[in-house]
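Cross-check.
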Amino acid sequence: MNFWTEYERYLAHFEGYLQKKCAEMAFRPEILTESMRYSLLSGGKRVRPVLFFSALEALGCDYHGKENFAVALESIHTYSLIHDDLPAMDNDDFRRGRPSNHKKFGEANAILAGDALLSYAFDLLLGECGRGTGFLRAAQALSRAAGADGMVAGQSADLLYTGENGGEAELLWIYRNKTGRLIAAPLIMAACIAGKYEEEAEAFGLELGKLFQITDDILDATGESEKLGKTVGKDAAEQKLTAVKVYSLSGAQDKAEKSAARCRDILGSMELADTAFLSGIVNYVLKRDR
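Predicted model, tokenized:
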């Protein structure tokens, strides 16, 4: 298996479907549709849709015909980025190498674009629930991961501990909720639809989310704005609670290696699944430079 060939296969399929869904959008006023499309179509790694498609295949399921779940995932992720960039949150002027939504359309319209994308995601999910119990449970998994028992709680804690003296316990709680829950969601959703390995999928997803956030913290300290497509050095400037702050840079790099090893151990326990691509995802997240 060539990891990047497979990644591009999943990515191309998702991008084609997303383009189709965005072309169907005709919300009024026009600025709402324009601002939703602006952020949805701004590119990025599309890690969550790729995880969903690849996890389905790893568990013996065809991902074709299940694309609305992937669009719902990316819609929720995109809404979170729009709101995260706002002056009241992380106050970032750039996202994926171009102006943040609020710099392009204004703060009020950016808030509404995020709200609209969240609602759009649930409209897509509700349309899939009648296909069977596994589909219903997959929709519920994403709903729980996105809200007050998941990503939103993590974002709230991230703000709470900015400039405060939080330690490792608070950091890991933020990681689990702000990032981990929405990274785990596509894996749990695939397991629900396939009807197997739900516990392993959740454990792997949460650990992968932890690894993703550790490397994100490292890149904020060591990366390049041109590659990342966003401002670097903001975590330290704003006194964010990060792996680099808690463990030091070398300590964070060691934690990343150990987290990657834990991810591989979990995949190794899934004996009836083809986890080669998911193992490649672990290596990609560990070594990424953007």
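The domain at 3-287 is CATH 1.10.600.10 (Farnesyl Diphosphate Synthase). The chain is about 75% helix and 0% strand. Passed to J.P. for a second look.
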